[in-house]
Every structure is written in C-alpha cells, then in structure tokens.
Write a structure and sequence with these properties.
- The protein has nine helices and nine strands.
- It has two domains: about 170 residues, 3-Layer(aba) Sandwich (Alpha/beta knot); about 45 residues, Trp Operon Repressor, Chain A.
- A hairpin with a 2-residue loop joins strand 8 and strand 9.
- The model has no long low-confidence stretch (mean pLDDT about 90).
- The strands form three sheets. A five-stranded parallel β-sheet has the order 2-1-6-5-7. It has a two-stranded antiparallel sheet with strand order 3-4. It has a two-stranded antiparallel ribbon with strand order 8-9.
- It has about 230 residues and is an alpha/beta fold.
- The relative contact order is 0.15.
Length: about 230
C-alpha cells in the first residue's frame, strides 16, 4: 500500500477529487491511503507558550509572515511546515515532494519511479511560497507539473496522486487502460456510429466498424504517429 501524506493549509480542497471514482475505490480496497497534515496544527508562536497556543482559535494559529528583503504577499513560516513534515514521516523512509515551477517536469516515467515508495509526502505551498529553510531540514525532490504558476500545491498533489495511483497494478479494471501500454491515439469513439449536429453528419471511421482487429490496431498506430509528429 502507498500512503500519501499531504501537508497543506487547505486539505479540504482535495476532498471531492480524491474521494471519487478510481481514487475512492483504490482507498476502499486498501491499495492507497491519504492523510493530511495542516501546518496550522503545528504552529507555535514565539509570543505564546504552548498552553496559550492550544487555547487559540484555529484562525489565530498564524503560519505566515512578511518576507525578508521585501516583496509582495506573505510567506509560509518554516517551523510549522517542518513540524508537519516530521509528523508525516515519523520513523518511516518517505519520499518528499516539493512543488515548484522550476522543479523537474513530472511525467509518466517519474510517476513509475515513485511507485516503489510506501510513503510519499507532498509539501503544498501557498501565498508567495514557503520559507526556503524547509528544504534544508529534509531531502526533497522539486517537481513541476507545468510551466505555469498555481495558487497552491494542492492541484499538483492531486495530479501526482492520480497519475501514480492509476499505474499501480490492480487499481484499474484493466491494466491495459494505462494509456502508453495500449495501441491508441487520442481520438476515441462510441455509439451511435453517426451523429448529426447543426445539419452536419459526423461518422465513426469505417475501419473501427469493420471488426478487423489487425486493421484497427494499424489505424490506431498510424493516428498516434501522425499526432506525435
């Protein structure tokens, strides 16, 4: 079983996706587990002793501050995040992933390399980022899901969790559904063979209606190569 540990200020933002469809079934079958660690639960303000902090409201457990050197926005403090990651790891050997636009480009090959870990920690930043000293506390792998900037690391975490999970044997109803293991282009069709929209008839390619599996595979391969070019 792979346990995904998500360090996030907004764990609820993942709920609807990871508790639906394939990911939900994978959890129910005990193939994966997903746990959350909110840095706010690990905040200890220097202005308060631990007992005082315990009495503070959830919103009062502040975990961000202004950046040194100036700049817009706020930065997540290091210690609450470090404590959250430490709680996630415990005594386990875990892979820690830090999401960054400048990180290694995530791919199916990278997802396959992560499957060997039983525990994977995702550090999800917010605001203007996380104090860089967090990365000095633990060995982390910087990962990017694309050349763009998102509001937080929760979306990338969902992307990586989904991609890794669907590649675990037994998760999908048919392992051939893992895209690059099958002969397929990006175009797929289903019934009926002819549909009409705004006076235009759109048909399924004849070869797919032929029942000739060799010709269908050849057509799919040809389409895939054309699209790759």
């Amino acid at each position: 079983m792979i346990t995904y540990h998500v360090v996030s200020l907004f764990p609820e933002s993942l709920d609807s996706y990871v508790n639906s469809s394939i990911l939900k079934r994978a959890q129910e079958r005990g193939i994966i587990a997903i746990k959350y660690y909110n840095p706010r639960d690990f905040a200890k303000s220097a202005k308060f002793d631990p007992d005082a902090v315990a009495k503070m409201s959830y919103a009062e457990r502040r975990v961000d501050d202004r950046p040194y050197g100036g700049g817009p926005g706020m930065v997540m403090e290091a210690l609450p995040v470090i404590r959250a990651v430490a709680a996630a790891i415990g005594k386990k050997k875990a892979k820690i992933i830090f999401f960054s636009p400048s990180g290694k480009q995530f791919s199916n090959a990278v997802a396959d390399s992560f499957k060997k870990y039983t525990d994977i920690v995702f550090v999800c930043g917010r605001y203007e980022g996380i104090d860089a000293r967090v990365k000095k506390a633990f060995p982390m792998t910087d990962i990017s899901i694309g050349e763009y900037v998102l509001t937080g690391g929760e979306l990338p975490a969902m992307v990586v969790i989904d991609t890794i999970t669907r590649r675990i044997p037994g998760v999908l109803g048919d392992d051939n559904s893992v895209e690059e293991r099958r002969v397929a282009g990006s175009d797929v069709y289903t019934r009926p063979p002819v549909i009409e929209y705004k006076g235009k008839k759109m048909r399924v390619p004849k070869v797919l209606l032929s029942g000739h599996h060799k010709k269908m595979d050849e057509w799919k391969t040809s389409l895939k190569l054309k699209k790759a070019k």
